[in-house]
Amino acid sequence: MLSPLLSVRVERNLFEVSRVNGCLETLWEQQQLPDDGRMEVLLCVEEVLSNIIRHGCPGGDDDEVWVRADLAAGEIEIRIEDNGAAFDPLSHPSPRLDVQLQERRTGGLGVHLVRKLMDRITYERLAGRNCFSMAKKIATGMDT
């Protein structure tokens, strides 16, 4: 993502999640994207970003979280980066949904949701940063 359509620096505050989703909504409208996929993208951004804000970085002057979005090849790609401790959410096993709620281990439902709703997700650690990308196929009007 060299020059994304959207690039937002995020403060470590849960109120930022709604601000970022508002920016994504504006991008959606500006690009005249169809409603199909919008709610899934917003929900997944909310899940990933809120987890990063709650658990990712300790905070401070050098704290950085960025959300970037771009359109390419009939999909919207969202990239969320932070400079917190290395954490690959994709390396954790999927939650066991076949057992009683009381018997389940905590965590993992958000990543499970993202895996189910998005078409492509990746994680990599680059230059001391967690880089989580997710993409959803959408009809852009340019598709034939």
What does this structure look like?
This protein is of the alpha+beta class. It has a single domain (6-137), classed as Histidine kinase-like ATPase, C-terminal domain (Heat Shock Protein 90, 2-Layer Sandwich), CATH 3.30.565. Helix content is 31%, strand content 25%. A five-stranded antiparallel sheet has the order 1-2-3-5-4, covered by helices on one side. Helix 1 packs antiparallel against helix 2 and helix 2 runs antiparallel to helix 3 (109-117).
Poorly predicted runs of 5 or more residues: none
Specify the helix fraction band.
25-40%
The largest β sheet comes out as: 5 strands, antiparallel
Question: CATH top level?
Answer: Alpha Beta
Task: Estimate nothing, just give the exact number of structural domains.
Answer: 1
Structural class per helix/strand content?
Answer: alpha+beta
**Can you count the beta strands?**
5
Within the CATH hierarchy, at the fold level, what is the topology?
A: Heat Shock Protein 90
Strand content: 25-35%
CATH architecture grouping: 2-Layer Sandwich
Discrete helix count: 3
List the strand order in the largest sheet. 1-2-3-5-4
Rg computed from alpha carbons, rounded to a whole number of angstroms: 16 Å
Cα end-to-end separation: 24 Å
What is the element string, with H for helices and E for strands?
Answer: EHHEEHEE
